Amino acid sequence: MEKFSFSSLNELKSFLKEEKIKKILVICGKNSYKNSGAEKLFDNLLNDKKKEFFYKKFSYPEITELNEIIKTIKKSSPDLIIAVGGGSVLDYAKIANVLTDNSHLEKDIVNSTYKIKKKFTKLIAIPTTAGSGAEVTSNGVIYINKIKYSVEGKELKPDLFFLIPELITLAPNKIKASAGFDAIAQAIESLISKKSNEKSISFAENSLKISLKYFIDFLNSPNYENTSGMCLASNLAGEAINISKTTAPHAVSYPFTSIYNISHGHAVSLTLNSFLKFNYKNIDKANCNFDLNDRYKIMFNLTKTKDIHTLDMFLNNLKDKANLERNFEKLGVNFEKDYENIISGVNAVRLSNNPIDLKKEDLKKILLAKL
């Protein structure tokens, strides 16, 4: 039996005892904060601190709510921000903490003209899902008019993170499945990203070894061991993509979330196989500084598959076991009606990390093949 040692809770308690931390802003989702057990935990940990809460309402990070968070930060002027939640909560906190002085926020984010001067205050990230790895990444996602934009800069990376498995075990399976598959997809995409290097490969490999071992048990029979495993796998996947960034499946996933409200990891899962097959089929056209065949061999080895066909079957089987619907029609995705909106919402920067250069007609073939 593999053992994972997490001293995060004790370390968090010690950190919060520092006398200079008097006023705290907690950013969280109201339901997840209560249902995860975070509310009970922090009632005890913060009972001698002045605290204020911002409860997010949107299912994904949206510009209107980001503005509300920034106003709250300015008004409350906390000594410390604690972000407790999934990737959306963490992204909100990371972005708001560094863009409090941007007077034309929406325009600046759309045009990537935002100025990051410094953090407003120290930020702690405490994930309540095992998936996004946002606690260790230096970027955040925000949607403006249902189009996804990224805010990037070393200042976004939280000052501290604490992995507390007890806050993750009680999450609904639908959330755990989506988040967990996001970690798996991040590690797979990281392996073949143009920006990958030896360090990111190591993070991605270690992440996949753990997530593929524990993912389904984490959903079906959650316990401290498999929950801790998924916490660590998610964290390592975050470290991997912080270096390499993600590729085509993530780039295409965002409009599925903004248009159809499909949760992020689930949205990524919808095209992961298709892009892996496309890249493999066109491997002789690879535009990267490494042998793409070698990266696929790593994938085959980790998944105990022998070729792209068996890898495809392996991933589909994993999705089925996790109850991640694979049928676009059943999810209400209407390519005939919304194709242009879907394509316009694809993130070009993430798309450019794909090891095979993708043209608009390639995307159309890949997406329409899913009908």
What is this entry, summarized?
The chain is an alpha/beta fold. It has two domains: 8-166, Rossmann fold, CATH 3.40.50.1970; 172-368, Dehydroquinate synthase-like - alpha domain (Dehydroquinate synthase-like, alpha domain, Up-down Bundle). The chain has 16 helices and seven strands.
Please describe what this structure looks like.
The chain is of the alpha/beta class. It folds into two domains: 8-166, Rossmann fold, CATH 3.40.50; 172-368, Dehydroquinate synthase-like - alpha domain (Dehydroquinate synthase-like, alpha domain, Up-down Bundle), CATH 1.20.1090.10. 54% of the residues lie in helices and 11% in strands. It has 16 helices and seven strands. Strands 2-1-3-4-7 form a five-stranded parallel β-sheet. A two-stranded antiparallel ribbon has the order 5-6. A hairpin with a 2-residue loop joins strand 5 (139-144) and strand 6 (147-152). Helix 7 (173-192) packs parallel to helix 9 (224-244), helix 7 runs parallel beside helix 11 (264-281) and helix 10 (248-260) packs antiparallel against helix 11.
